[in-house]
Amino acid sequence: MSGKLILHVEDNQYNRKIIRDLLSKHSYEIMEAHNGEVALDALARRRPDLILMDVQLPKLSGLEVTRRVRADPSLAQIPIIAITSFALSGDDRLALDAGCNAYVAKPFRPRDLLEMIRGFLGP
Q1: What is the pTM (predicted TM-score) of this model?
Q2: β-bridge partners, 29
Q3: Given phi > 0 = left and psi -120 to 50 = alpha, else beta, which region is 55?
Q4: Contact criterion met (CB below 8 Å) for 63 and 37
Q5: Extents of the domains making up the chain
Q6: How far apart are CA 86 and CA 106, in angstroms?
Q7: Reduced to 3 states, what is the DSSP secondary structure of residue 81?
Q8: Which of 71, 96, 105, 119 could bridge across to 87 with cysteines, CB 3.0–4.6 Å?
Q9: What pLDDT, in 10s, does the model give residues 72-85?
Q10: Under CATH, which architecture does the 5-121 domain have?
Q11: What are the tens digits of pLDDT across the range 101-110?
C-alpha cells in the first residue's frame, strides 16, 4: 500500500472522478480542489506528497498556484505534475517555467500518468 497523499486540482468533476478512481485503485490518498483558491486552502491544512495541477482553473490559474507553492519554503519541494487539455505549442514550457516538474496533455493514458507519479513517489 502506498499511503501517499496526492492533491488533485481540477475544475471538471468528471476529470476528478477519473483520477480519483485511478489513484484509489493504487492505494493513494486523494485530496481534491476544484479551483486555485481551494487548492491553496487545502495546502495550508495538509502537505501532500505530490500535486496534480490542471493549468486552466477558475479563481487562480494552475500556473499561479504553482508559483505560490514554489515561493513557500514549506511546500517548495512538492513535485507538481501539470495536466491540461490546452496542449498548444509552448504550453509545456510555460508549465515548467512556472515550477512544474512534469507536464501531461489530456487525453492521457492512465498507465503513463501512474508511471510518472510512481517516478516521483516510488512504487
Answers
A1: 0.94
A2: 5
A3: alpha
A4: no
A5: 5-121
A6: 8
A7: strand
A8: 105
A9: 999 999 999 999 87
A10: 3-Layer(aba) Sandwich (3.40)
A11: 999 988 889 9
